[in-house]
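Extended Data, panel c. Modelled sequence:
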Amino acid sequence: YGFQAQPMGYPGGFVAPPVQNQPTMDGTIWMPIPPSIPNCPPGLEYLTQIDQILIHQQLELLEIVTGFETNNKYELKNALGQRVYFAAEDTDCLTRNCCGPARPFTISIIDNLGREVITLHRPLRCSSCCCPCCLQELEVQAPPGTTVGYVVQNWHACLPKFTIQDERRMDILKITGPCIVCRCCEDVNFEVKSVDETCAVGRISKKWSGFVQEMFTDTDNFGISFPMDLDVKMKAVMIGACFLIVSLSF
């Protein structure tokens, strides 16, 4: 995936800093590696320096030619176009093509050193709005094996609604989308608000990608905005919320 090389050690315990902002063999420019931060999950230091993430789904030629759903891959970039993370879905062919938008999945999010820093787990759940007792849920781990939060779908008659929870299942943020998520020539916005839904906190947006790409491929572009000082764990959970919304609505 074009990851940067690990920094090399030198005698005396000195570690040479990695070369920053240099394109890898595939031409990708990664975001500079930030210094470690106390009490911050490893790999989430990047999120302390940004207030928005752009997610680009990669085009899969095999999927276009055959019509069979393949494992999705995504680039997560900052506002400067530098890659922050790379994300890859891991599901089997039968599950992808039989379950469709309701399929369970595991998505691994990898930093520029090739470390898996965030893992998203979506179990198999009922996808019917008429069955409010078994709605969608996604678990966010950072690092893998350590749960930092959940994204829980809330039942509503006509609006897509979700709750972001911390690792103790306490409600932290609310997400509300539009009644109609398929719109032509404009973005589709999901508003992120405080628990009482009185204060806007951020936004998850599906970006309009042009008529040809929208009609003939399922590659989409998304944006996430959040306060710079939001807890990095909740930023990671918002990334998970975006992927759950993508799988359900687009």
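Residues 45-145+204-209+217-249 form one domain. This feature is highlighted in the accompanying rendering.
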